[in-house]
Amino acid sequence: MSITEKIIEYIQTNKVSTTEVADCLGKTGVLPDIYPVNRGQFQAGRVKWVYAYNESNWDVHEQIRDVQKGDIVYIEAFDCNDRSIIGELVSKYILLYRRAGAIVMNARVRDAHKLIKEKYPVWCTGFSPVGCFNTKNENPFDDGIIFSRKRDVDGAVMVCDDSGVVLIPKDQLTEDFYKKLEAIEEQEDIWFDCIDRRKWDTFDTVCLKKYKEL
Description:
alpha/beta; 3-stranded parallel beta sheet; 8 helices; 10 strands; 21% strand
């Protein structure tokens, strides 16, 4: 098992929240303004990066044919002007037939009523009935963006829950980060024990860490 698989398995097994993962990253890593369509969802997995641009989702349809089981499909939109990138049809294909773990977008989706009804694990910036066009762009997408995202995002790890989405960069997928996850889980257990059982206040627990004196 690779260290990436080990980290994903630990997060999934222990339901390590985005809050805790962000803390392990020094309170960083959040994808801004992205929230779940459906509450009560939790997903973690390796990122499959997909792009859409110039108000077209042609390239999305082409790229999602390579989605693997358990992937977190991250669709990043460029110059799509608040149009929805996908809706029910593409979400169903990605989640049910390609067996992805989740879909994350820095853009809007449509068919919200269907996504909600099916309780699909989708995270996005909002909704719009106005979608992108199924037409091929005349000009190719920026090679520099493709290179940088393949280097930095594709193959990284995302954790998604009710609070939003956090990205664990590839250079953080190490044994040291794994140990940080273990440590923060232990810390959370200690803190709640201090509050729930010992009836301490949060200042003694979190700030003064008086449990270290026991």
